[in-house]
Write a structure and sequence with these properties.
Elements: H1 2-10, H2 12-29, H3 40-55, H4 82-94, H5 104-121, H6 127-138, H7 141-146, H8 156-171, H9 176-196, H10 198-216, H11 221-226, H12 230-250, H13 252-260, H14 264-274, H15 282-302, H16 314-337, H17 342-361, H18 379-395, H19 400-428, H20 449-461, E1 469-474, H21 476-487, E2 495-498, E3 509-516, H22 521-528, E4 533-540, E5 543-549, H23 574-577
Parallel strand pairs: 1-2, 1-3
Antiparallel strand pairs: 3-5, 4-5
Helix pairs in contact: 2-5, 2-6, 3-4, 3-21, 5-6, 5-8, 6-18, 8-9, 8-17, 9-10, 9-12, 10-17, 15-16, 16-17, 16-18, 20-21
Amino acid sequence: MQNITALVKKNKVAIALFLIVVAAFFVRVYNFDDWLYFKMDQGRDANLIGNAIENGPMMLPLLGPRAGATQVDNGFLRLGPAYYYFQYISGKIFNSTEPQIFAYPDLFFSILAIILLYFFSRLYFSKRISLAITTMYAFSFIIIEYSRFAWNPNSLQFFVLLTFFALLKMLNEEKMKKKLTWIALWSLALAIGSQLHFFGFFVLLGASGLFILLRFKFWRKERLQEFSSTIFWKKMSLYAITFLAVFAFFYTPVIVSDVMKKGENVGNFVQALSSKPSNKPFIEKIGKNFQENTKYYCLITTSSCNVGRLENNALLATFTIILLVSAMILAVRAFRKEKAGTRKDFLLLFFIWIGVFFVLTTPVSFDLRPRFFILVFAVPFILIGIVFNFFEEKFSKNSKYPIAGLFAIVLGLNMLGTSVWFREQRDSQISNVEVDRTLILKAKDGVTLGQLQEAVDFMYANRQNKDITLYFYVKQEHAQPLRYIFEQKKDSSLKFATFSKTINEDPNAQFFAVIPSQTELEFLQKRFGEEVEFLDSRILGQISIYEMFFPARKIDPDFKNKKSSNGPNDRLFWKDVFGIRGIDMEDEEAEQSDESEL
């Protein structure tokens, strides 16, 4: 018994971190499959990577998802393909193309981010405060929400921390071999992180570059004298070669694509940079940016400020402002006291991290979305850690009371926010409920994979015979997801297609409508412009499905169902590089719909 007690005491930090990770894992996987967000982007990506899993790695694309709604002349501005390759690896490991498989990498990196944040915090804080920071981060409502579905920005939370952790370790490492290892890891994190979000590209590169510049102060006379040293240039060359070799390796698909397409994506990148942001006065942009930063830091810290204007969340917004501004003042005070070393570097990098993010968000302050703040998910909790540090210095033995109080407030508010969201998710499966806490996607409709799966199962079960083509009317947001779920039936006789206003003349047609549950049936009557009979229906929570019959519909005995194409794909695949013929992919991103009235 004494040996066990001694062992627990010796490894109490490891045990505590393990328990945090286990609890954080549970809230991230609870009803993971049924409550998964599976929208248009997720369906498009699953279709693309599912094809590669089934037909071989030559069907992997050289470029990744679109960089938001960036307007360019040629095709789309695309990110690197790292996100897609993570999904491909997940599909191969689990030997599956089910929708939830493609969300596993984001789930995996969200757990790794918790562990990494502890070690990142230890570069400055004590073990106890590092565990407190890690716990608050692990149970932040919005961070949990971003960890529970597949989307290219979601894993950025891990690679931001890895970039800055490796950078700090590299600059404070004396041994050459270890320094080169940290440089390689820093380059890897930068290369992958910059492929997950267009904005992440600028923040990670900008913060890293500015930190190195300020850390080494190259403008000083003694630094300039080093430039004449042969040893200095040998070291710099070795560092640069290591960094560029790793970076270029992970950007190989992007480079190959641009070589083959004569610099098209680079041209799109330059054009996107030169495009004008929102036409607002600069002072308005700064004011808006302060407002948006306050709102989203409040959301990350307290799970609140998500509905309405900041004035509607005055209490918790004020709490967040006072807390974080006080922490910044304490951080500046601590920076002035610190001597050169890892702790001072940590604070310098932390200031640059916050500053670069704020500067870069100012031009787009009127277009900010929650996903932009994945880059600073850890920031408010590190600031709270600085407040905890101050309490320990100021109150010594009595510091545990204010620390415990503040910790309990932040943790409690986020646990409450998560429980409310879980209740909303649960209720949305069985009834039409008001959706307030689905904050991360444009379509705040509460529709999840479980409901879409039930809709497909309903149509499949009601199929009259194997010669029938199932036509379903649905809004654009759910068209590609439903198609993908149909394909997972692996039934070679199954034929299905979407339709909009026009009722086709196929004699072997069976018609369905998948619509929001609050939509009146009169809408469908008006939509199709002819008499509709409803044969069967089912309410699936936020959506309802109806089997429809059109008694006056014209029928053409010679009708042949033709698969519609959305036009040529602007992507290149590895098969194109090696001249291998493969299955052509449609460009799902060119899909248009006039179904917004739903």
